[in-house]
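Issue: ligand-bound run for XIL - logging full I/O for the record.

Environment: standard queue, default settings, no custom constraints.

Inputs:
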Amino acid sequence: MKILKNSLLLLSVAVLSSCNVQKEKEAVSLKDSYKNDFYIGTALSADQIEEKNAKEDSLIVKQFNAITAENIMKSMYVHPEKDKYDFALTDKFIAYGKKNKMFIHGHTLIWHSQLAPWMQKIKDSTEMKAFMKEHITTIVSKYKGQVDSWDVVNEALNEDGTLRKSIFLDKLGEKYLVDAFKLAAAADPKVDLYYNDYNNEEPAKRAGNIALIKKIKAGGGKIDGVGIQAHWKLAYPSLEEIEKSILEYSALGIKVAFTELDISVLPNPKDFSGADVNQKFEGDPKMNPYPEKLPDSVQLKLAERYASIFKLFLKHKDKISRVTFWGVHDGQSWLNDWPIKGRTNYPLLFDKNLQPKKAYNSVIQLKETKQ
Ligand code: XIL
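Outputs:
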């Protein structure tokens, strides 16, 4: 009888403590684990800003302490006609961030992609100058003291580090860059101002980006940080190039943020590189190898890749202001439709059923073992 009682006792202790371990695991989150290191952000779709799915919403609020709007702050949505702004969703985005005490990042003021059609018809320098002044001043002033940082200019560079022949460069010459930063600072002198790009951890583009930041500073512009988008692959870019980038950019006296992190596990079309949203390729079943499920071996590779990247981020946490994922879960990722439509990609830490993946555990575990 006594033996039976003792073993029952032992059994209940074991059950209780495994429940506690389970509870502790559930209580853990990205934002809490990394709270002394840098913000952990996510991009939000319009539906997520509107809190349309309660399960997604509780995951967002639990895991992240910084937000970026995936699309709704881009010029084609927020400024669809010359004399018309549409702030309905951007107001909701700001309210969402405030309600949840999150760091709010504005994406993006000056970008050649996702431009409103009327902007593409701007004819000359006078009109372009007036557009830039009005657009930047209106938006930045409206959210003065509410948005914490802005991508002032997005993707102004070519892969070789020269300036992209955008409509802005075409109409105004390279001065548009320093002017954009000056206009943003005039509208909200306290907000952090960033230049944001993809592949700017690669040597040639990085050199161009460093030159650009120096030019903006020399011209009297205020620039507080550089955004490395970080649309990465399993084996590219190398940790060495990422580390050199963190060191070289922060040596300029600015913050480094990883602003759109995701890691594609799918094959790339030939001739494809970077993250130009206008690139499109034809579909082919070979290019969509995991339509139902990601094999365990690739799941593991993704977890290892994320662990090595976050290990590097932690090593340089004093230089890094924010790490933002480009989406909450795999089901919403833009990489399911870009650069090829209708694929199934697995680039984030949560799967399409909102469950944490091995990659999530590996990022959390880094904080549980002694650094
Ligand atoms: C992407 C969005 O995720 C997609 O929904 C949209 O169709 C195209 O743009 N670089 C950027 C982001 O700065 O704004 C892009 O976001 C991805 C590449």
